[in-house]
Structures are given as structure tokens and as C-alpha cells.
Amino acid sequence: MIRTMGMTQVRRRFGRALLRLVGCALTLGTVTPATAQTDKMTAIAIPAQSAAIVLGTGPLPNAAAPESWHSQYGSVFARNVVVATLTPFLPDPARANGTAVVVAPGGGFQTLSMENEGWDVARALAARGVAAFVLKYRLNQTPADLATFARPRAGPPMPRPTPEAMMANLAPQIADARAAFALIRTRAGEWHVDPARIGMVGFSAGAMLTMATTVNGQDARPAFIGNIYGPLSAMTVPADAPPMFVALAADDPLFGNAGYGLIDSWRAAKRPVEFHLFEQGGHGFGMYPKATTSTGWFEAFARWMDMHGWLRRPR
């Protein structure tokens, strides 16, 4: 029953945490790394992605603006993604431990932080013997012209949509995540992956997609999940909810003061959860090198995975 619930039920499972979605401001508002980079958006050519595998979820309905890419803060972002892809980052077969992770970058469902919250995370996982797969999921359409997209919005601030409002429009993204899990399981032998050891980690909007996939992904069924600076509103926890790792900075302007009901929900359901609340880090720190302890979130995540045995080959 849990796996086949409607989107209305999914929306009810997420609380009233506030979410500001203005282009990539969601991901980039406070992420300037220690070596300061310009916040100016600069158009770049779509990178060659020879390893990217097109998922079979089709083009985004009624999409008019073509996919485009830009750089900002010394990192790379995708926009107007209309066809979902999955890019494997595979470890040396001699080091492969059988675990896989689907990596879902954030960006307010308007951009994707492909480098800071995608490729860099996947490389770090592969270095630990984990097969990592960066999910470039379909996005809400934005102006095709980058200058128009980057221009500050005039007038009073727009109301902040809630996670429930966002959940109402995540059907394409959930379909992309399900297709990613299906593809990995289909090619598990080729990629040295144990089909029962596929997890998912998401950042900001990608964390929302991770949670939505967990409760409404039907056949996806992540073995474990990582929620990295996503909303932490209380929810009804599925009886078979996977172990969850959570990382958030206390000074996160979006979710730092919105409560930690999700942690309480997981604990009340007696499901495994580890929560790291960093004093500083802002929103969107990802793999950026910063002079804050939030930079250590990945090492903590890796230790958590190792504690559960996911960094060791099963006997």
C-alpha cells in the first residue's frame, strides 16, 4: 500500500517547511567556497557526456526551451533538462564492494548542480569502491535566455511554496529515479553491483526527490538514503523505511530554523537515522572546500556507510 499511494498522500507526508525556489538561488545562495568564486552565471557549451545513458522516461511534456549549461561559483550547472540521463562512475572492479548509490543533485527543480552535488560526489564514492550514478533528472522549464533567467525578479517577493506544493509536480522526477534504479538492477552484473545494495543520496531539491522516491518510488526501494540539506519536516514513516543519513547546517537560510521533525519521525518509527547538524555551512555546501566543519559531511557519510557494512564486500 505504501508503494502505490497517490501523490496527494505523498504531499501530506511532508510538513510545512518553507522553500524558496528562485532559479539556482536555492542551491547557491550561501555556498561560496573558501577560495571565492564569482557568482555571475556564464553560459557554457553542453559538456560531452559520452558515459551518460538516456533513461527511457521520454522528453518532458510541452518543453520548449532546450537544455543548456552554465558556470557559477567555479562550478557547472545544467538547466532546462528535458531528457533524463544517468552517468555511471564505476570503481576499479578489484575494489568494487557491490554497493551502488544514485546521486541526485539539487537546484530547486530549475537547475542541477551537476559538479558540486553530482560528479564530485560520485567520484568520491567510486574512490571507496561504490558504484555511483549521477541522475540528471528532468527540470521545470525556465527562460531559454540565460540573462533573462539570471535577472533578479522585480516586485515584491513571491510566496514561498511548501514541500507539499512541490510534491504535486514531482511525477516526472520520480519516474526518472525509478528508471535509474531499474537500469542499475538490470545491468548489476556488468557494473559489479548487488541489486539489494542500491542507495540514494540527494541534495536540497534532490533530497526532496530522494524522500519522494523512498515513499512513492514503488519498485525503486532504496536500501539506504542520504538527505543533505533538504527539508526536515515530520512525516509518516513507512514500516520498511531504509536507514537514513541527514546533514544540515544550523545557519541554513532555508531549513536551519524549520525544525527537525523528520529525525523525530524516523526515531519514533524505530528506523535507523544519523543526523549531523553543523554549526555553519549555509545552504548548498556540497563538496565545496569551506572553512567550516560542514565540509566533513562526506567523510561522516562514508563512515556511516562503513558502519552498516556497505563499504565492505559481503561474505
UniProtKB/TrEMBL annotation:
Instruction: Identify the keywords attached in UniProt to this record, alphabetized.
Output: Hydrolase, Signal
**GO MF annotations, alphabetized:** hydrolase activity
Source domain of life is Bacteria
- InterPro entries referenced in this protein's UniProt entry, alphabetically: AB_hydrolase_fold, Dienelactn_hydro, GDXG_lipolytic_enzyme
Which stretch is the leader sequence?
A: 1-36
Where does the Dienelactone hydrolase domain lie? 120-287
**Record carries keyword Signal:** yes
Annotated PANTHER family: AB HYDROLASE SUPERFAMILY PROTEIN C4A8.06C (PTHR48081), PEPTIDASE S9 PROLYL OLIGOPEPTIDASE CATALYTIC DOMAIN-CONTAINING PROTEIN (PTHR48081:SF6)
Q: What is this protein called?
A: Alpha/beta hydrolase
